[in-house]
């Protein structure tokens, strides 16, 4: 059987529901050989995931998922094997995480003003220690106080990008984010480029700009992509000389995505290893 590789997952270091070690253990249980932990705007889960990877015999690719923004549209960039001590990238991630705090407070204020039963204290109670704060934590507070059944319902009713309560946070331009990842010795992959927000997807021209800045790959096999999006992604990748990845974007019980539901070819993982100059993968015991 081929090596099973899932290059996009979240833990309680951001908006996943399992601690990093539990994500690694679940990966082992679900038959994965290689796992990337890619929490939003943080590397804080790396140490625990590394220890668990060695213990459970799973290979670990340490990663991040950087929230970016261009013309009001959200873009997610995966960065693999970056140097966690790179001062420029770290400063940018710090700034984004800080901005996420005030943004979450503001969203809750707007919701409260409109009579939605929620307090910021309830939201904070849902944020694991040190986690990158995000809308899923507001959703968890709404689930906890019985306003909605699950995160998905909270996003549909109140938390979506087109909701009147939506507030953006500081996020770097996607081209700059590619430069930051490359500058930190990492390998940049455009996450789920064709996820649609407000019915819009990002234009090919932006991916071309990112490719010119050093983007290495595109995440094509992802549950947000239908057959047409996957076809478009493969064609674009081949035209721009980018590799193609597939991943689950697992968030524990926070989303329906299951570990290993999409996977990446071993040859692509080799390219990621070859292109990185930051940290090396943790290799299975
Ligand atoms: P934020 O980073 O705070 O803007 O929140 C975006 C995050 O919310 C994404 O990374 C997803 O993990 C999560 N999310 C978006 N839509 C949904 C949904 N319908 N159900 C559950 N989680 C969602
Ligand atoms: Fe997320
Ligand atoms: Fe994402
Ligand atoms: Zn993700």
Task: List strands and helices in order, with pairings.
Elements: E1 5-6, H1 20-29, E2 34-40, H2 46-56, E3 59-70, E4 73-80, H3 87-113, H4 120-124, H5 135-144, H6 151-159, H7 174-183, E5 187-190, H8 204-212, E6 217-221, H9 227-240, E7 243-246, H10 266-275
Parallel strand pairs: 1-2, 2-3, 5-6, 6-7
Antiparallel strand pairs: 3-4, 4-5
Helix pairs in contact: 1-2, 5-6
Bound molecules: adenosine monophosphate (AMP), fe (iii) ion (2 copies) and zinc ion.
Q: Which cofactors or ions or other ligands sit in this model? A: adenosine monophosphate, fe (iii) ion, zinc ion
The end-to-end span amounts to 19 Å
Give the assembly state of these chains.
single chain
Content-based structural category: alpha/beta
Return Rg in Å. 18 Å
| Succession of helices and strands | EHEHEEHHHHHEHEHEH
Segments where pLDDT lies below 50 for 5+ residues? none
Sheet bearing the most strands, described? 7 strands, mixed
Number of continuous helical runs: 10
How much helix, percentage-wise, in residues?
40-55%
Number-wise, the strands total 7
Q: Give the overall average pLDDT.
A: 97
């Amino acid at each position: 059987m081929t090596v099973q590789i899932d290059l996009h997952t979240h833990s309680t270091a951001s908006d996943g529901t399992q601690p990093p070690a539990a994500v690694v253990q679940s990966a082992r249980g679900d038959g994965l050989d290689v796992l990337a932990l890619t929490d939003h705007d943080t590397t804080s889960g790396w140490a625990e995931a590394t220890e668990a990877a060695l213990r459970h015999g799973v290979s670990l690719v340490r990663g991040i998922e950087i929230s970016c923004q261009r013309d009001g549209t959200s873009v997610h960039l995966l960065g693999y094997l970056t140097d966690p001590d790179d001062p420029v990238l770290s400063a940018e991630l710090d700034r984004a995480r800080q901005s996420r705090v005030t943004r979450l407070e503001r969203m809750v204020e707007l919701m409260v003003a409109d009579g939605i039963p929620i307090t910021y204290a309830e939201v904070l109670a849902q944020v694991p220690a040190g986690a990158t704060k995000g809308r899923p934590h507001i959703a968890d507070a709404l689930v906890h106080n019985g306003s909605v059944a699950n995160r998905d319902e909270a996003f549909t009713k109140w938390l979506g990008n087109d909701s009147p309560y939506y507030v953006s946070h500081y996020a770097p331009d996607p081209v700059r984010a590619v430069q930051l990842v490359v500058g930190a010795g990492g390998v940049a992959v455009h996450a789920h480029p064709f996820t649609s927000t407000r019915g819009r997807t990002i234009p090919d021209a932006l991916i071309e700009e990112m490719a010119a800045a050093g983007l290495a790959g595109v995440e094509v096999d992802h549950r947000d992509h239908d057959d047409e999006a996957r076809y478009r992604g493969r064609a674009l990748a081949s035209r721009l000389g980018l590799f193609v990845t597939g991943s689950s974007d697992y968030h524990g019980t926070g989303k329906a995505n299951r570990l290993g539901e999409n996977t990446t070819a071993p040859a692509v993982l080799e390219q990621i290893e070859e292109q990185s100059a930051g940290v090396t993968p943790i290799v299975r015991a």
